[in-house]
Amino acid sequence: MFLSTLGIGEWSVSSWVKDTAEGDSKSKEVRKDGNSLMKNNVSKFLDKIPKLPSHYCRSSTSKLYLEPHFSSFSELYRVFKEECNSCNNIQPVAGRDLFVKLIKEHNIALFKPKKDECDLCLSYKLHNVSDYDYNAHQLKKERARQEKSVDKKEAEEGEGGLDANVFATCIVNFLDTEIKDCDKNKSKIFYSDGCCAQNRNAVVSNVLQHYSVASGTTIMQKYLVRGHTQMECDSVHSTTERRKKNRDLYSPASYVQMIKEARCGKQGQYKVKYLCHEFFKDYSEIQYKSIRPGNKVGEPCVTDISALKYTPNVGILYKLNFDNELIPRRPNTIIGSEKQLYAGPIPISTQKYVDLMSLKPVIPRDYHPFYDGLLHK
After folding, report:
1. By the 8 A CB rule, do 30 and 13 touch?
2. Nearest of 259, 277, 279 to residue 269 by alpha carbon
3. Would you give the DSSP letter of residue 116?
4. What single DSSP character describes residue 49?
5. 88-124: pLDDT as tens digits
6. Disulfide-capable partner of 76 in 70, 163, 182, 228 (CB 3.0 to 4.6 Å)?
């Protein structure tokens, strides 16, 4: 009836239907290819922009934050379009809505939490710091990150601790167990934040210089700029925080197992070392002189150091800026030796012990002996 009404042949209609179906399929493929190219362009663009994890908000967010060079998504989108248009080959440019959607899919946010901000950078925003001081701070920050990027290609990063002797013990153990078979002629490089109590002090420097002399190995210790000390190892904290959520952990041993299982896949589980008081050493009697570059008021102090180099033959050298040459500072004069840091387990306060005892009704019985055996004063 349809063919008779229109006065057309069956072959013509069949041909039209076939052509239409193939056209729709090709159109879908073109759209799919176009979307893929647009997503690829956005991903490449985002990869180029410096991003930071939330340094102090790991337990509440796993987002990455773009450094504060952009005030809005519109400004960021304009930069993206300009980059696409400047390419020699014409590339599909994502619309703004798709662009913002893809940014959110990458779990990237535009602004960092306020408590993540550097105090000097925040003071500058409030006009309490001069342009000269702020620009000098930014140059130091970028130079420190450039230095770390170069060194990352040749070495893996170490781990941190709590106070100077504890931190030093962990570093020496890492050197002895994890990289002892590495080429002695190749420098071992550590990156640290600027905390003087933990890693920018004479105790740690004495230990690293002592290790350098004893092992014949050169060691570099470099410091990132205060307020901008985010490092790759922060991802470990973030990963373990996520793994810890909604889990019942009743003892330190439970935390060890949880941390091991926090990472899985091709890289395998994290290496975890369960420490006790016998592990930690007291290095206070191993004495090299102060690592401070200057001696008088107004001269450079410990917090001005950007890098320290520990060598078997010429002692400790330092830099006040990554672009400067290393300057010799301390000779190789070893006094004293290491000893045990703790004679026994460290007792907790009586009030803390009482509080822990009050929690026993909600803790499985298998764990009660651990809490009953805690030393307290």
Report:
1. no
2. 259
3. G
4. S
5. 554 556 677 877 887 777 777 765 555 556 778 777 8
6. 70
Q: Residue 233 CB: number of other CB atoms within 10 A?
A: 12
d(CA 65, CA 116): 10
Which residue matches tokens 């092992």? 215
Strand partners, 223: 192
Distance, in Å, from the CA atom of 51 to the CA atom of 116, rounded to the nearest integer, reads 13
Token pair listed for 42? 């956005």
Torsions phi, psi for 339 (to 5 deg): -150, 175
Q: Cα 171 to chain center, whole Å?
A: 18
The residue type of 67 is E
Token pair in block for residue 289: 């002189």
Model confidence, pTM: 0.56
- Cα separations in angstroms, 271 against 103, 257, 264: 33, 10, 12
Degrees, nearest 5: CA angle 205-208-209: 85
- DSSP secondary structure string, 134-179? HHHHHHHHHHHHHHHHHHHTT-------SSHHHHHHHHHHHHHHTS
For 357, residues 6+ apart whose C-beta sits below 8 A from its C-beta are 371
DSSP 376: B
